[in-house]
Amino acid sequence: MPLPDNKKLIELSNDLIAQFRIVFGHHKGYRPTHARGVLVSGTFVPASAAHDLSAAPHFSASSTPVTIRFSSSTGIPLIPDTDPSANPRGLAIRFHLGDHVHTDVISHSTPFFPVRDGALFLDFLKSIAASPPGAASPSPIEQFLGSHPAALAFVQAPKPTPVSFAQEAYYGVNALKFVNSVGKATFIRYRVIPLEGTKNFSEAELAGKDAGFLYDELPGRLHDGGVTFKLCAQVAEEGDVTDDATVHWPESRKVVDLGTLKLESIIEENKKEQKHIIFDPIPRIKGIEPSEDPLLELRAALYLVSGRERRAAEQNE
User: Fold this and answer.
1) Quick one: which H or E segment has residue 170?
2) Residue range 207-253, pLDDT digits in tens
3) Residue 110: CA count within 13 A, CB half-sphere
4) What is the pTM of this model?
5) Could you tell me which of 314, 273, 293 has the C-alpha nearest to residue 39?
6) Which of 115, 124, 294, 295 shows its CA 20 to 30 Å from the CA of 242?
7) Coil/strand/helix, residue 177
8) What is the distance between the alpha carbons of residues 62 and 179, in angstroms, rounded to a whole number?
């Protein structure tokens, strides 16, 4: 996973990391956002339709080992599961294709994203930091939301707390291009759908839960029979926007079953492994290509820069 040659992109990544730390605090050795998480091991088994869409190796193999990270929003390592700011939850998937060969899926529990590029995301974070409780109205964040409808839609979209990570749906907001064995290209967005269905707590139900209930209940659920998700692809049609994460495709678009994710156990030395793993939004394998969405290169750079800092902090402990 190389750093991009674009120096402005690296500078923007560093600016975003610094701004996250202004908003959430600097927690050495943790991700600047989605700091709290847990790694789980499992297996992916492809559906027959997956190979029809993409020549990616994990869509034709009989099975592929995976590492999955569930996470909570914000850069606060111990944010309570009952805090509304911990939503949307995150889900990242790594498909292990060979020695030092892998590809990843990045998703979170809402199909919304506030902005279409990194510069606007930095402005969004700055407006949050400049709007403490009790700020005079209109505050900087109110002004930003008033002039950026996509950001307002993201903020206003319901983000209820799930009863379990295993009963939450997750969405890849960036479009990717699948290319099959005969060269046919199809733009998709990932969806990760729980086999048990989605289920959320009401505010009253949530009030009685412990601060770590999501992380505490997951090991028992895995032990009692595992957790299963369907990896799906929402397929774009001609004319659908593929370079802007804030533009939704109609729900009438076909959703294709790509295969089954069976989660099996919590990974040992979890905290250490979380510091080491750096997920990559860019596919970097045959059969799956990035779209022209500008957030993809930015997210890859930001994840790599912050991941290297995380590893360095671990070495200095």
Assistant:
1) strand 170-171
2) 999 999 999 999 999 999 889 999 999 999 999 999 999 999 999 99
3) 19
4) 0.97
5) 273
6) 124
7) strand
8) 20
DSSP string for 66-102: EEEEEE-SSS-TT--TT-GGGPSPEEEEEEEEETTEE
Question: Does residue 247 contact residue 39 with C-beta atoms inside 8 Å?
Answer: no
Whole-angstrom distance, CA of residue 147 vs CA of residue 36: 32
Write down the H helix ranges in 190-245: 203-206, 213-223
CA distance 90 to 84: 14
The one-letter code for the residue type at 172 is: G
Q: What is the dihedral of CA 236, 241, 242, 246, to 10 degrees?
A: -110
Residues, the chain, total? 317
Joined together, the tokens standing for residue 124 give: 């969004």
Tokens encoding 171: 């969405």
Q: The tokens of 204 are what?
A: 């009253």
How far CA 255 is from CA of 20, 52, 139, 189, 270, in Å, comes to 34, 14, 40, 9, 33
Residue with the two structure tokens 């139900």: 205
pLDDT in tens, 280-303: 999 999 999 999 999 999 999 999
